[in-house]
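thought: fold this chain, then report.
action: predict
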Amino acid sequence: MGFSWWRASLTDTELIDKARRGDVPAYEELVRRYESLAFRTAYLIVADTDEARDAAQDGFLRAYGALRRFRAGSEFRPWLLRIVANAARNRRRSSNRRVSLALRAAAEAPAERRNPSPEATVLAAERSALLLGAIERLSLEDRDVIVMRWFGELTEAEMAAALDCPRGTVKSRLSRAMARLRVGLPERELEALRD
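observation:
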């Protein structure tokens, strides 16, 4: 069975139902929808491009194997990202390779504008490196909530589902993580990041 254009118009729930019944192209459509987000999530945990790709792929494979246990009515994105994040954490624990998150993320980040000036490019790279370096120094728990909220763009409700905890817990964890992030950045750099 090849790719059918109509699969792209189906909801996640419809694709999950089809994938549960053995429609592999339906699951491939889910992978297409979330592969970029899964990679970014894994990358921010493992700080290595190859490890992030492997962790995202591992997460998709695990999610496919667990598809029958996916609760009807739940959102797929936070469920998938929890699986991908767990796969990335497992890879990070088992691997002693720790590549600098700031350098990799700054080098691979897409340009915000089409033709920024050389000065703007340098300043943006410095700010990204500074912020991502501070994020890397946080605990894994703090990094998880910041990554989910600001890089994965999950809502508090989606984060609660992904972390399997109440929304209030997500809110307090995110608040504490942001406070620790601010402590990790000198005031001069905080002002530069606000610009």
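thought: worth noting. The CA atoms of residues 55 and 91 lie 7 Å apart.
final: tokens above.
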